[in-house]
Specification:
Elements lengths: L13 E5 L12 H15 L2 E4 L7 H4 L3 H13 L5 E4 L15 H6 L3 E4 L4 H9 L5 E2 L3 H4 L7 H12 L5 E2 L5 E2 L16 E2 L4 E4 L3 E10 L14 H4 L2 E6 L7 H13 L8 E5 L8 H14 L7 E5 L10 E2 L3 E5 L4 E4 L6
Parallel strand pairs: 1-2, 1-3, 3-4, 4-5, 10-11, 11-12, 12-13
Antiparallel strand pairs: 5-14, 6-16, 7-8, 9-13, 10-15, 15-16
Helix pairs in contact: 9-10
Length: 341
């Protein structure tokens, strides 16, 4: 099934902010991050930033009120004056919102929805409703104290504001995995020289539709957003996660889950976001080669590591369902179409 591509943004459009998971945007000690992100969307892109009705009520209230958070998502999709929706921040419980969201509201009101980390569950709900969304910036990542990284700004603009193919995604010149402090306006992250992409295994050039998120896609097997064999068929899987869920043991379990469900065998390729910690990928690489190459005999399946997406900075934006390409000969990754119409 072809996914609906939402309409691209233009200056003057309205983007709605929603608190899908953690709701720090409305808390006094972290609202500065919301304000920084809001100002950047206004100044850089000419967007009007509109908070959903419940989204700024603070974490104490919204952590206990799933219905209020779900109502905001449906309100934002139904509101004809809203052109796009961005999640404020990630968290750990957005999956609890699913029973309170009517997916037909999403299907009947297609528009840009962007967010990452725990927001993935809402991305997948949109996917099941037939809408292509974006695994990319939450508002808090745009509101980083030391500014919006030029690499991130470039790909945010190109992915959401233009209908040309997104094109070759080059590695950033520098990067950081220093954890953000959402409550400290003076916190500065250190950026390090980026060494580019690393081909773990595979050969040739492959293409496929983009599907994925963080490794939590393996946790939703009993949920209405659970992915099926059709979702993985001839796809390029993108995957990343925070350190506690991306150990070599967790990666081993995740790859075996893919293999045991016959998902791994259907893939055309895999791209992996940079580790959200400053360490070598060598041990993870050995796990990949052992499980994919040896245990499942898929030595030619391309696996490219070190791409700038996920819980590091800077990042590019990934449109679900868009056709992409891995070129093993050039250690290159491209998105071959636009994510918007």
């Amino acid at each position: 099934m072809a996914l609906i591509k939402p309409k691209h943004l233009i200056s003057g459009d309205t983007i709605c902010t929603v608190s899908v998971s953690h709701s720090w945007a409305g808390d006094a000690n972290s609202k500065w991050r919301y304000d920084f992100g809001k100002k950047r969307l206004e100044n850089l892109y000419g967007l009007n930033v509109l908070p959903a009705p419940n989204s700024m009520k603070g974490n104490d209230f919204l952590s206990k009120n799933l219905q209020a958070r779900a109502d905001d998502i449906m309100w934002a999709f139904e509101n004809k004056g809203v052109n796009a929706i961005i999640a404020n921040v990630g968290g750990n419980d957005s999956i609890k919102l699913l029973p309170f969201i009517d997916s037909t509201v999403i299907k009947n009101n297609p528009k840009i929805f962007i967010g990452m980390s725990d927001v993935m569950n809402i991305n997948l709900l949109c996917l099941k409703a037939g809408l292509s969304t974006f695994y990319g910036h939450n508002l808090f990542t745009i509101g980083e104290a030391q500014g919006f990284h030029p690499y991130s700004e470039k790909w945010f603009r190109k992915s959401l504001f233009g209908t040309a193919s997104i094109g070759n995604i080059e590695p950033s010149e520098n990067w950081t995995c220093d954890k953000l402090d959402p409550h400290n306006e003076n916190f500065i992250r250190n950026y390090y020289l980026n060494t580019g992409y690393e081909l773990i295994q595979g050969q040739g050039v492959v293409q496929g539709k983009l599907i994925g998120g963080h490794t939590g896609i393996a946790w939703v097997e009993s949920e209405p957003i659970a992915l099926t064999g059709d979702d993985f068929n001839e796809a390029i899987l993108f995957v990343e996660d925070i350190p506690e869920f991306f150990t070599t043991e967790k990666l081993n379990d995740f790859l075996k889950w893919l293999g045991e469900n016959n998902f791994l065998q259907k893939l055309n390729g895999i791209i992996i976001g940079k580790l959200s910690e400053k360490k070598s990928f060598e041990e993870h690489s050995m796990v990949i080669k052992n499980i994919i190459g040896n245990e499942y005999g898929l030595k030619n399946l391309p696996v490219l590591y070190g791409l700038n997406f996920g819980h590091t900075s800077p990042i590019f934006v990934i449109p679900y369902g868009a056709k992409a390409e891995i070129n093993c000969d050039k250690n290159a990754f491209s998105i071959l179409e636009s994510g918007v119409s």
